[in-house]
Amino acid sequence: MSNAILIRGARVLDPAAVTDRVVDILVSDGRIGAIGPSLPTEGVQVIDARGLVAAPGFIDLHTHLREPGHEDKETIATGTAAAARGGFTTLCCMPNTDPAIDNATVVRFILDQAKEAGPIRVLPIGAITRGRKGKALADMEELAQAGAVAFSDDGNPVADGHLLQMALTYARDLGLPVIDHCEDRGISHAAGTHDGWVSARLGLPGYPSAAEESMIARDIALAELTGGHFHAAHVSTAGGAELVRQAKARGAHVTAEVTPHHLTLSEEWVVGGGEGKGAYGALTVRAYDTRTKVSPPLRTVADSEALAKALREGVIDAVATDHAPHTFSDKAVPFEEATVGISVLETAFGSLMRLVHAGALNLPTLVHRLTAGAAAVLGPRFAELAALEPGTPADLVLLDPEAEWTVDTGTFASKGVNTPLDGVSLKGRVVLTIAAGQVAYDGMNAKTAKTGRS
Predict the structure, then answer these.
(1) Is 322 a catalytic residue?
(2) Cystine design at 318: which of 24, 59, 146, 374 (Cβ 3.0–4.6 Å)?
(3) Do the beta carbons of residue 51 and residue 424 sit within 8 Å?
């Protein structure tokens, strides 16, 4: 029992068992050994968690780890270190690597690298098409057998409807979801700003909501045609959420995710120059900044509020970070030339707690959407990752919902420091992450942990 850990007196939120109680948790041999009041302390490491919240480790359905091919932006080691700081014990990594995750060799490489990096679980998402080029399907069965848990061409939408129809059909037989970046580029022109008053004021091309919504509608229709599982990545519009709501009401096998930034930030952040607006209060931001450029773009406050409502009601199943680390040079260019993406893993929980403190979402629901909701998208075999019950994997996080802190990208474990939240004060913080029974991040005794960047 010398390696056992006893977490004492935490408020335990277990979305799998729908429990909310103050108890002790014993971690032993990589599993949850016991849960209950006043567990014995002899021979174990005791962590005083009174006043803290214990939850299953978060599951991220949408992460970019960049390795292989773009290690200047992120590596599996730095990405998983960032995940631990953010409370994420499972990462689903997107296939926009070089080479793409379109064959078993790349899947195995990622799994091997993840084992070397530490205890954070990495689940590869295979490409839908070869090289993510949208021309011919990848060998989906080979990818699944190697360990891929879903299929996506990530930032490349599958424009060919017949190709996506075939992908949904094959994925259905494999029991895996197809994740599509829903964007009609004939409408969006890959613009980085929502089509509204901000884009007009700045003279930037606008990305209309219709570019997303038209593709969501098409993909839902194909899911209904094939019986396949369509998962909508990073829904950003009220209309997109409504389409998902209607599809679920009809019984379609459709799920969806939303990001922390689309929930809490809005198009006004692109203007900058003072107070950036969000659906849940103003935040002090720097002047006009390419770090606000993301795809799909930051939308309106009304969109953010509709997305929060859909998340609260379970129309949107999960929160996914879309963690997209980039180099300084990727962003240190004119706005139209800047790469899209925000580094999110280490700020996700603090950002999302804005919804809780504003009363738009309660904490148990937020925990569910970060854990059980995400696990359900992946399928029943992953359900135990979102549970805190004896015998389940010891993946758990301790949270301080009231802790106030200031985002400092200089302390990030991720190589990506491209976040407009740098210098912003947040309320709610991850203080301890245990993955596979090992302490992956310990921030309980220090306000700022050492950087893990290499």
Answers:
(1) yes
(2) 374
(3) no
